[in-house]
Amino acid sequence: MSLRAVDEVVEQLLGLVKPTVKTELRTIDEALNCCTAQDIQSPINVPPADNSAMDGYAIAYSDASPQASYRVSARIPAGYVGSRLEPGTVGADTVVMQENTELVGDEVKLLSLPDQFENVRSKGQDIEAGALIIRKGDRLSARTLSLIASVGVAEVQVATPLRIAIMSTGDELVEPGNAVAPGQIYNSNRYALSAMLRNMGMEVVDLGIVADTPEATERALLEAASMSDCILTSGGVSVGEEDHVKAAVEKLGKLELWKLSIKPGKPLAYGEVQGVPFFGLPGNPVSTFVTFHIVARQYLLAMQGFSDYEPFSVTGESDFSFKGGGRREYLRVQIQNIEGQTRLSKFPNQGSGIMTSVVWADALAMVEAGQVVQPGDRLTIYPMALC
Question: How far is CA 324 from the centre of its chain?
C-alpha cells in the first residue's frame, strides 16, 4: 500500500464522519469544553436598563456647566434602582466621574464636564433580548460560559461527550511508578492521549497496556468496540512481527487506510472494529502526538459535532535552514517575537522519540516533501496551546 498524502486522507476521513446525535442537558458548571447542541438566544437585555459605567454623578448635560455646584438629590448604590424623578425635572443622560468632582456638604462641584452620554451604558448595549449569543456546534469555553451566565441561563443542551477507548500495545511498556527492566520503556502515550481527549471535552475509556499477542489484541479491540464511540491505539500498526493491531482490525472489521506520507508518524491506520471507528496511531511518542493533532483530532471534533474542527494555523518566519525529505514533515518550533515579526526557531533534534522537542516547542511548522527552507522563508505553523 503506497503512502497517502495528508490533505487527501484528512478530506477522506472528514467525509466518513458521522456526527453524534446524542444530546443531554447540563448545568453551565458541568459544560466546560462541551459542544452546544442548539443555538442559544438571550432572554434579556444586557444591561437590562440604562446605567452608569462607573462611580460618579448623573447629570442632565444640557443643564450643566463646569465649576458649577449642584445639590445631590439621591444616592444609588450598585444593585439598587433610584426613585422616579419629580415632575418637571430634567432627566440625567451623562455621568461625571467621581474623580472629576468635589463634594462640599450636600452639593457636588463639577470640576470638568465629559461629552454628552459619556460613562453611560444604554439598555441592551451589550446584548439585546432575543439576540443569538451561542451557535450550535460552538465549544463552551470559559468565555462562552461567562456570556451564557450573564444572561441568566443556567442549563444548556450539549452533544453527549464521546466515549473514546484508548489502549497501548507493546510488551516493552511499563506504567510510571514501576521499575523498568532492560529493553523496557515507560508508557507516555497513554497520558498524552488521555489528556488531549479530556481537553476536547470527551470521556476516556482506558484499557491500559495490551500484550503483544493476536489473542490479547483481538480481545481488547472487541472490548473497546463494545463500550466506546471510537477506538485509539498507539503502537502495533507497523510491520514488526509483534505488531498485531493491523491484522486484528482487518479480522474484526476493516481497514480503510494504512501508512501516511507524514513525518513523524508514517504508520497511521484508520478503519473500524464492529462498526466503531478506529485509529491506529504510531508508537513513538512524537509520532503519536503529531498524527493525533493533525489527523485524528479533526475527525473526533467533527464527530462530536463541533462546527470548528480544523486546526488553527498562522505563518511565521523561519530563522533556520532545512531540506524536506520524501514526506510532509511537521517540525517542532518555538515562536519568538522579534521586532514585531513572528520568528521560528527549530529544535535541534527532530527525532520521533524526542518528546522534549514537543515540550520545548510552541507550534508545529509544516514543510512539504522536498521543500528547501531558508532563513526568512514563511512557514505555516500550528500552535499547540491547547495540547
Answer: 30
Is the bond leading into 47 cis (omega within 30 degrees of zero)? yes
| CA–CA distance, 336 with 69 (Å, rounded to integer) | 55
35 and 201 Cβ atoms separated by less than 8 Å: yes
Give the per-residue pLDDT at 57.
Answer: 87
What is the Cα–Cα distance from 219 to 206, expressed in whole angstroms? 14
Q: Per-residue pLDDT tens for 261-314? A: 999 988 888 999 999 999 999 889 999 999 999 999 999 999 999 999 999 999
Residue whose grid cell is 472629576: 100
- Phi and psi at 149, nearest 5°, equal -65, -35
DSSP 249-287: HHHHEEEEEE-BSEES----EEEEETTEEEEEE-SSHHH
CA 79 – CA 64 distance, rounded (Å): 27
Using the predicted structure, report yes or no on whether residue 88 has a pLDDT greater than 60.
no
Residues 350-353: contacts with CB within 8 Å, 24+ apart? 350/264, 351/264, 351/286, 352/263, 352/264, 352/265, 352/282, 352/284, 352/285, 352/286, 352/287, 353/284, 353/285, 353/286
Rg (CA), the chain: 29
Cα(244)–Cα(213) distance, integer angstroms: 7
Q: Which residues contact 340 (CB under 8 A, 6 or more apart)?
A: none
CA angle 160, 141, 233 (to 5 degrees): 55
CA proximity to 228, closest of 216, 240, 220? 220
C-alpha 334/C-alpha 365 separation (Å) is 9
Query: Which domains, and CATH codes, for the chain?
Result: 6-22+160-304 (3.40.980.10), 26-46+125-159 (3.90.105.10), 314-383 (2.40.340.10)
Q: Where are the alpha helices (DSSP H) in the chain?
A: 6-16, 142-150, 189-199, 214-227, 245-252, 285-291, 297-304, 356-360
Nine-digit cell at 76? 444609588
d(CA 329, CA 220): 32
